[in-house]
Q: What sequence folds into this?
């Protein structure tokens, strides 16, 4: 007795079984054996969830027989002898040719894994206020997951969502040179993109790091500009994030005779400071 078995992933067990039956060409659930490998797991705000996995078997290789070898509607017994005589008469009607067998779907090893096809984008278009609420709920859950004490506040600055995570213990969510904060920023943007088609821009600060970083960069830029005015030439800074580069550009714009521009490809994009007169001569 041969079996055809497939494994299907879907958002729920019911959807996985339905997809498997369609793949096997079966309409009656009694014709298949269903094994639930894993139940679906709902993630936090859609992150980290897992689909349901089921294995479905379909019996194949033999035709069904009526119980106790009873005759079918043609009056012929359903045993081996009856089937043989049935095939001989069918061959005589077809000029001695054996009756053709129905085409079967090709199989590779009797088992394969079916991947789920992506559906059309059914995400709603959330307003800025709704997106700010989603971002706030996610960040609150993240602070709780860290096991820290802190507060989260969100507000709108024109078309930008500003999120602030404050509290002495939240410094652990900043990381060295703000690396953890940058990762949380990207993760929050991913959550917004999951829940809304049109995603607003996001500005995130944790434990006041963004403000401290802005002040430190402003002092650093002022020192470099003073050196540039005295010595001339150009000064190339280290690669920075877009937010950090903007701070340098804003400081340079406040000084007459000094210009700034960015070069390189992300994430190795950097700022170049130069004197305006030197740029004109070049």
A:
């Amino acid at each position: 007795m041969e079996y055809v078995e497939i494994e299907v992933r879907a958002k729920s067990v019911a959807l996985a079984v339905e997809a498997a039956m369609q793949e096997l060409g079966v309409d009656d659930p009694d014709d298949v054996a269903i094994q639930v490998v894993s139940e679906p797991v709902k993630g936090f705000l859609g992150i980290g969830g897992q689909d349901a996995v089921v294995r479905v078997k379909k019996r194949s290789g033999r035709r069904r027989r009526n119980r106790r070898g009873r005759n079918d509607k043609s009056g012929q017994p359903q045993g081996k002898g009856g089937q043989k005589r049935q095939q001989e008469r069918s061959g005589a009607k077809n000029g001695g040719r054996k009756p053709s067998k129905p085409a079967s779907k090709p199989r590779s090893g009797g088992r394969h894994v079916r991947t789920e096809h992506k559906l059309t984008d059914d995400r709603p278009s959330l307003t800025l206020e709704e997106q700010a609420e989603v971002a706030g709920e996610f960040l609150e859950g993240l602070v709780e997951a860290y096991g820290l004490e802190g507060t989260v506040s969100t507000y709108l600055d024109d078309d930008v969502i500003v999120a602030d995570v404050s509290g002495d213990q939240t410094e652990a969510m900043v990381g060295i040179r703000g690396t953890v904060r940058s990762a949380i920023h990207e993760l929050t943007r991913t959550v917004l993109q999951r829940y809304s088609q049109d995603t607003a821009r996001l500005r995130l600060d944790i434990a006041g790091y963004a403000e401290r970083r802005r002040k430190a960069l402003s002092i650093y830029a002022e020192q470099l500009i003073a050196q540039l005015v005295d010595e001339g030439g150009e000064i190339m800074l280290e690669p920075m994030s877009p937010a950090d580069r903007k701070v340098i550009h804003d400081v340079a714009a406040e000084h007459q005779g000094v210009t700034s521009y960015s070069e390189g490809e992300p994430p190795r994009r950097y700022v170049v400071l130069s004197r305006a007169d030197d740029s004109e001569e070049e």
Q: What stands out?
A: The chain has a mean pLDDT of 79.
